[in-house]
Design goal:
binds adenosine-5'-diphosphate, six-stranded antiparallel beta sheet, VC0802-like, Carbamate kinase, about 35% helix, alpha/beta, binds aspartic acid, binds magnesium ion, globular
Length: about 400
């Protein structure tokens, strides 16, 4: 007898009929002899609607109250899921994040899980034969404020529970058949992968592949949780997310991703002296802004430097506020913002041992007539920042260039 965690995303729970369908899956797993824990997201677009409602009230909602509000979406889903299972004649109990003791830090809107204190309580219910349904995306901090884990965070709740309970597998039920070589909504030729390594999935998720919450993969890797991503609308086998092993193919490029909604901040004429970068980025971090792709250019013989970095478009206002402070302290330093950018990336562990990948990517973008604004690389990733208008075209171009549409990537 095994223990399975099953997570159902919003599109898999968009209406009453879909609750019955999802309930059927959980019951089937139970009848096959497993203990079953179910993690659910808010129904359909419910979270977006709640965000929208908040902004109808005020354009500066308190972060605490925002989490209080958004967590209600998942609370609706747990109760409905329990009712659907009861309706089919089986035992089930619904529990909120707080009720399973899912403790987080106090960063509203992007809280990190610290521990799950009520593990034994969950096990007791499972041992009594109940299916346990837990609200995804939410927890409580040490002062019992409700926190949320960031958009898409129910995946992370599922993995955390799977790790804590020592589950045999964490199944993620969603609206696609599994992980694809790129977002199938943008790249119609994308292929479903049979497996993908944690490190590759982690990079793809951080670089825009919204199919998985990136922190869920970080946790799965750290705790060795086997994950299987599959469709809640079909019986097809999905994609395994697994530890790297020499039995499995180390392809050069496993997948490609596109991150939209980026902006580039350029600080022109920053003083060229020790401590400036540290001062600027300490203050940027204090404003809670996450930065990537930093470039510093010092012109020959000049006493100033140009520093540029990429941020989420949503953070541009915070950066502008910061610039007003800098302008007082570092007169002469100007700020320019380009906020219509996207980043296209290719990811694969085989890059560690192969050369020529960057050249192939640049050539593909050149052929597609896409201008590269900035390039960054790491051990298993190459990324190019491009104009947002070219984003979809760029993703399709690199996907074709690396033959992801027909190579047996992960197959
Ligand atoms: P859920 O509501 O089930 O959590 P999400 O909307 O968060 O579902 O994630 C599923 C979506 O992720 C898919 O509909 C797909 O468009 C998108 N997606 C982006 N990149 C990928 C990829 N590489 N493979 C599969 N789906 C992807
Ligand atoms: N309901 C939350 C969201 O829409 C969490 C999730 O779906 O994973 O972001
Ligand atoms: Mg999701």
């Amino acid at each position: 007898m095994g223990l399975i965690v099953q997570k159902f995303g919003g599109t898999s729970l968009a209406n009453a009929e879909l609750f019955h369908r999802a309930a059927g899956r959980c019951i089937r797993a139970k009848l096959e002899g497993n203990k079953v824990v179910v993690v659910v997201s808010a129904m359909g677009q419910h979270t977006d609607e709640l965000v929208d409602l908040a902004y109808q009230i005020t354009d500066r909602p308190s972060r605490r109250e925002m989490d209080q509000l958004l967590s209600t979406g998942e609370q609706v889903s747990i109760a409905l899921m329990a009712m659907a299972i009861h309706h089919a004649g089986h035992d089930a109990i619904s529990l909120t994040g707080g009720q399973v003791g899912l403790r987080t830090d106090k960063s509203f809107g992007r809280a990190r899980i610290r521990e799950i204190t009520e593990r034994n309580r969950i096990l007791e219910h499972l041992n009594k034969g109940s299916i346990v349904i837990v609200a995804g995306f939410q927890g409580v901090d040490e002062a019992l404020n409700i926190t949320t884990l960031g958009r898409g965070g129910s995946d992370t709740t599922a993995v955390a529970l799977a790790a804590s309970l020592g589950a045999d597998v964490c199944e993620i039920y969603t609206d696609v058949d599994g992980i694809y070589s790129a977002d199938p909504r943008i790249v119609p030729d994308a292929r479903q992968l049979q497996y993908i390594f944690y490190d590759e999935m982690l990079e793809l998720a951080s670089l825009g592949a919204q199919v998985m919450h990136s922190r869920s993969i970080e946790l799965a890797k750290n705790y060795g949780v086997t994950m299987h991503v599959r469709s809640s609308f079909s019986e097809r086998k999905g994609t395994d997310i697994v530890r790297e092993s020499s039995d499995l193919q180390q392809v050069i490029v496993r997948g490609a991703a596109l991150k939209k909604g980026l902006a580039r901040v350029e600080l022109v004429g920053a003083p060229n002296r020790p401590g400036i970068a540290s001062e600027i980025f300490r203050r940027v971090a204090e404003h809670g802004v996450i930065v990537d792709d930093i470039i510093q250019v010092i012109h020959k013989g000049a006493s100033t430097a140009d520093i540029s970095f990429t941020v989420d478009k949503a953070d541009v206002e915070s950066i502008r506020a910061l610039h007003a402070e800098f302008a007082r302290e570092m007169p002469g330093m100007n700020m320019e913002v380009r906020d219509n950018l996207a980043k296209v990336s290719v990811v694969g562990v085989g890059m560690r041992t192969h050369t020529g990948v960057a050249g192939r990517m640049f050539e593909a973008l050149h052929r597609a007539n896409v201008n590269i604004e900035n390039i960054s690389t790491s051990e298993i990733v190459i990324s190019c920042v491009v104009s947002a208008d070219d984003g979809d075209k760029a993703l399709r171009a690199v996907h074709t260039a690396f033959e992801l549409d027909h190579s047996p990537a992960g197959a």
